[in-house]
Amino acid sequence: MILDYLGLHRLSAQQSADLYELIIGRHRVSSFIITSNRAVEEWLSLFDDPILGNSALDRLANASYQIVIEGASYREKLSPHRKLLGGKGGD
């Protein structure tokens, strides 16, 4: 399962419970890929209930790999409007 852009908004109580159930149900059974613009340390504050958040994040961290990508946005580089906005780069 791929969860893209986790953390754009704080999760409601129902969203927190739903995400918790997904994580618990897939723990040690199937894989998750999660992308986020937030640091992992910020994820707990996204959950409505910190106990659910701790439990979910503990399971995610149990056997996870973290890949941090830094640098300029790839979307910006591909933007057709880049030249109009004065962008530079490998044309």
Q: Could you provide a short overview of the structure?
A:
This protein has 91 residues and is mainly alpha-helical. It contains three helices and two strands.
Report on the structure:
- The model has no long low-confidence stretch (mean pLDDT about 85).
- The protein has one domain (about 1-80): P-loop containing nucleotide triphosphate hydrolases (Rossmann fold), CATH 3.40.50.
- It has about 90 residues and is mainly α.
- Helix 1 packs parallel to helix 2.
- It is built from 3 helices and 2 strands.
- It is elongated, with a radius of gyration of 17 Å.
- Strand 1 (about 1-5), helix 1 and strand 2 (about 35) form a beta-alpha-beta unit.
Estimate what percentage of residues fall within beta strands: under 5%
CATH class: Alpha Beta
| Main β sheet profile | 2 strands, parallel
Shape: elongated
Extended strand count: 2
Write the H/E string, N to C.
Answer: EHEHH
Q: Structural class of the secondary structure composition?
A: mainly alpha
Question: Count of DSSP helices?
Answer: 3
Strand order of the largest sheet: 1-2
Distance between the termini: 35 Å
Annotated CATH architecture: 3-Layer(aba) Sandwich
The parts where pLDDT drops under 50 for at least 5 residues are: none
Q: CATH superfamily name? A: P-loop containing nucleotide triphosphate hydrolases
Give the radius of gyration.
Answer: 17 Å
Average pLDDT figure:
86
| Number of structural units classed as domains | 1
Helix content: 25-40%
CATH topology: Rossmann fold
